[in-house]
Amino acid sequence: MRNIIYIFFLxxxxxxxxxxxxxxxxxxxxxxxxxxxxxxxxxxxxFIQYKHLDFLANDIETSGKLVFKxxxxxxxxxxxxxxxxxxxxxxxxxxxxxxxxxxxxxGSSDLFKQLNGLIVNSxxxxxxxxxxxxxxxxxxxxxxxxxxxxxxxKFSKYIKAFHITFNAEGEVIELKxxxxxxxxxxxxxxxxxxxxxxxxAVFAH
Length: 205
Known about the structure:
The protein has helices at residues 2-16, 23-37, 110-124, 153-156; strands at residues 19-20, 42-52, 60-69, 73-80, 84-89, 92-97, 100-105, 133-139, 144-150, 161-166, 172-178, 184-194. It has four helices and twelve strands. A hairpin with a 3-residue loop joins strand 4 (73-80) and strand 5. It has 205 residues and is of the alpha+beta class.
């Protein structure tokens, strides 16, 4: 009986394993995602975030809503288990921690500009800059996964790699940011809407 269970477990693991894409498959994915990303002017999505720290037995789970407006305004609004928002706007980082507000001018920081640009591009799915990243393409039974490893030594001190999962339509459904310590932040998106009007009040600070 133990051998039978092991065989079924092995079959399930192999069936869901990622395999590397061919060059043609990777080019098709890039074309699909880039074409879609170019049409995105606004984007809203619910998310669940898992923060994995090696010294904790369980991941830290939070949830909320992401709101994006072209070209580079991004708001992460956490609603569970606490109220907290981070807004990237006008070269400034605005933080609202349950009513306690602060801001940080990051316009002169090349590192922040790069990070904000990467976050915007990862939300839209356009993470195919081979000048900045070593990129590897994988697929499983229903999704595509792109692994992007930064070539910038300064940036890689903060984030070692991005893993982005796309569904069959080329939409981002999961983003994983891996730190040099191999701790990571994993974000799963749902209820995505694109190009619906967003009131300016949403981005007030």
